[in-house]
């Protein structure tokens, strides 16, 4: 049966989160938003994808999806699956639109939403959750999904294939482990910069009571505030619990090194986004200076070429790929494989809206077929906005339970789209 | 007298160049376009800025200007001049829009158009062409225009000031030299990939007859074609003439090294964009492998953090900053100073539409106050679309003549805007 894509619908959906201080950090104060994409087909099945944005400007990623949609509409799922790289490049290397990136920012994020919607469609047609759809795919088919252009100096198709083939060994045991225990997670909900000290203390206490043994705080404010808040949180955590710090790029390189010399007193497990996201060499210098504290980054790393360099330079000890900042599942696959080649654990970026739903599939697939270890692996968890999805994440005792419904879990409820649609939904009127 | 900005107008202007093969290279086939911005004031004077795009998608940079315009409308020129970094960050580090970059792609290019329009306004109010407006500015005021965040590990405000103060020594002699001889240039009009061999030969012959002694060809097609075309062009050039090559990012790192091993037979002066624009480490490897051929890049280098790293890593021998890919004059200043600190000559990227008009000012200022040498300095020249500007570049005998009218030279003729406005102008109906 041939399934043809008949159209692409895009919705500008925004949630008014900025007012509450949720999601506030050293550099962002956002209304969590989604550029929400649905691909429709002549088979009645639809595919859903989104890219996360921070409020204003969501209209730009929506418009970029519209500018790219003609590469998708009219194609069949079968021809896309048969020429993955051709399909991917038709979107990411469009001879006119590529100039607007290349492969970064608005145009690349829109590509991610669109490409993920097609992947969601494929998984739904196969009747499998995305993690299983990918994890059961033959190595050759996964390799054929990846554009190795501009990363072949770091990983070849042959090396990728070898990693994926090894991933079939012990697969059943790893799956049984996840089905029994779930996937480890950490929470970012305790320490947003917009929260007063008492709220931070109460939230940390509650998180510990709820079973969390790994929490992340925002840093990058005045250093004495960071130190005070780190003391509050560390004071509430039981022995052995992990405390991560996240400065959202606010520091210069030398400033990051100096700040971490003070903050290391609170035994941080990693420092996330210590400086500008594009600064591979700066991250490498910081990594050497703050070891054994790990440097983590990735949520705004533009594409596989940036991740390649972060890994080549020894700049990161944790790879925080995002599901929709890069151009969808195809590019994420290349980044998971690069991380495995360089021996760096992947802890995907999450939070925002829909990101938890997305990245659980990636972390599970990574464990089953690529990284094959839970050592140092955790999925970020933020307890916001899950109620707007038809298949929201389930988290219990600090662990994600396996999603079981077909697809990529980012289908939004029609009533949520209607309520929060910008600018005409009731929430915005 | 206080001058208040009363509004921001943006026009989507596109020229149908793709059909002729003009501007075709290994990765782009564009309709040269401008996101054209006018800031209006209560003093009647207006400022013009633009960012160059490649056709489809120009509506995205236009929409991004609209999303950013509220940071400009209502402000006075005096308050902007008094707090340059504050003004610049209000646009480039908007707490919601920054997520869409950060500082890259659509949102950053739009910032460039908008910020340059304000600079054009300032130069017009001062009654000076942009190069003179900048070149006559005190070192302290230039330094105060620059955001050193994320580059302070490579250049400090004190170092920048020292370079700019040295730039006043011998200033009059350098200016007299430019007034007498003009600024050296090279032409890219001979070797677009879309041109057949005979056209390439004829154009090269004509360029030599017109006084050009430095020409650039596009490479990155099938290697045997590149070799054949290089032979044709080199065969038409007189002894000592420079031949530059430009692969527009199409090669992988190892592929670039292999291709240059063959193409070096034609004595290229530089290889431009040998691989993905984001690949600092890749450029550094290529630079080591192809020396003494220089590696050049910059036309799609997203921001000062990328340039910083290219210089720190020894990855480039030529810095090709673009006037409007980065966020306007302020960020260009930081890049010129970084290049001077690292001893790398600046040959700005040009071509497209309006870029020659823009970058002549930057190269002239660089010579007068920053780099202080013409050794290895050339401005790219492409003989396209100059007729649409009220103060087009003047090039004679392979050299740019100094522009003399006030401003940044990118004001478009109203009749050109009307004719080529997309989608409603007569050229597009």
From TrEMBL, chains A, B:
Enzymatic reactions: L-fuconate = 2-dehydro-3-deoxy-L-fuconate + H2O
Keywords: Lyase, Magnesium, Metal-binding
One Pfam family this sequence matches: MR_MLE_N
Domain Mandelate racemase/muconate lactonizing enzyme C-terminal: 197-293
One annotated GO molecular function: magnesium ion binding
Biological process, per Gene Ontology: amino acid catabolic process; carbohydrate catabolic process
InterPro entries, per database record: Enolase-like_C_sf, Enolase-like_N, Enolase_C-like, L-fuconate_dehydratase, Mandel_Rmase/mucon_lact_enz_CS, Mandelate_racemase_C, Mandelate_racemase_N_dom, RHMD-like
EC number(s) reported in the record: 4.2.1.68
Cofactor(s) the protein requires to work: Mg(2+)
Keyword Lyase: yes
First-level EC class: lyase
Name of the featured protein: L-fuconate dehydratase
Organism the protein comes from: Actinoplanes campanulatus
């Amino acid at each position: 049966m041939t399934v043809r894509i008949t159209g692409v619908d895009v919705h500008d959906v925004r949630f008014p989160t900025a007012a509450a201080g949720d999601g506030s950090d050293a550099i962002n104060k956002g209304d969590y938003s989604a550029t929400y994409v649905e691909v429709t087909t002549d088979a009645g099945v639809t595919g859903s994808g989104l890219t996360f944005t921070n409020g204003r400007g969501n209209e730009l990623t929506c418009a970029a999806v519209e500018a790219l949609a003609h590469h998708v509409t009219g194609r069949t799922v079968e021809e896309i699956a048969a020429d993955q790289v051709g399909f991917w490049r038709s979107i990411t290397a469009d001879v006119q639109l590529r100039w607007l990136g290349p492969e970064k920012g608005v145009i690349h994020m829109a590509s991610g939403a669109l490409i993920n919607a097609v992947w969601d469609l494929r998984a739904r047609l196969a009747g499998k959750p995305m993690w299983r759809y990918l994890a059961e795919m033959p190595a050759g088919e996964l390799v054929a999904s990846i554009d190795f252009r501009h990363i072949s100096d770091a990983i070849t198709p042959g090396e990728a294939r070898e990693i994926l083939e090894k991933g079939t060994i012990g697969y059943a045991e790893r799956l049984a482990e996840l089905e029994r225990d779930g996937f480890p997670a950490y929470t970012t909900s305790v320490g947003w910069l917009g929260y007063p000290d008492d709220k931070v203390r109460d939230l940390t206490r509650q998180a510990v009571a709820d079973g969390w043994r790994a929490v992340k705080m925002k840093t990058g404010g005045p250093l004495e505030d960071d130190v005070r808040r780190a003391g509050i949180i560390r004071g509430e955590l039981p022995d052995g619990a992990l405390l991560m710090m996240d400065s959202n790029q606010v520091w210069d390189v030398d400033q990051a090194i100096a700040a971490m010399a003070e903050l290391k007193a609170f035994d941080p497990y990693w420092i996330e986004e210590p400086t500008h996201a594009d600064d591979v060499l700066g991250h490498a210098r910081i990594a050497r200076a703050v070891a054994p504290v790990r440097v983590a980054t990735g949520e705004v790393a533009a594409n596989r070429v940036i991740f390649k360099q972060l890994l080549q330079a020894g700049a990161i000890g944790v790879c925080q790929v995002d599901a929709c900042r890069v151009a969808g599942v195809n590019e994420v696959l290349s980044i998971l494989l690069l991380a495995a080649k360089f021996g760096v654990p992947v802890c995907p970026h999450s939070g925002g809206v829909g990101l938890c739903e997305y990245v659980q599939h990636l972390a599970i697939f990574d464990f089953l077929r690529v990284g094959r270890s839970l050592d140092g692996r955790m999925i970020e968890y933020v307890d916001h906005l899950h109620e707007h999805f038809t298949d929201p994440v389930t988290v219990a005792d600090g662990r994600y339970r396996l999603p079981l419904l077909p697809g990529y879990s980012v289908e939004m409820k029609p009533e949520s789209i209607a309520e929060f649609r910008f600018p005409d939904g009731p929430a915005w009127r």
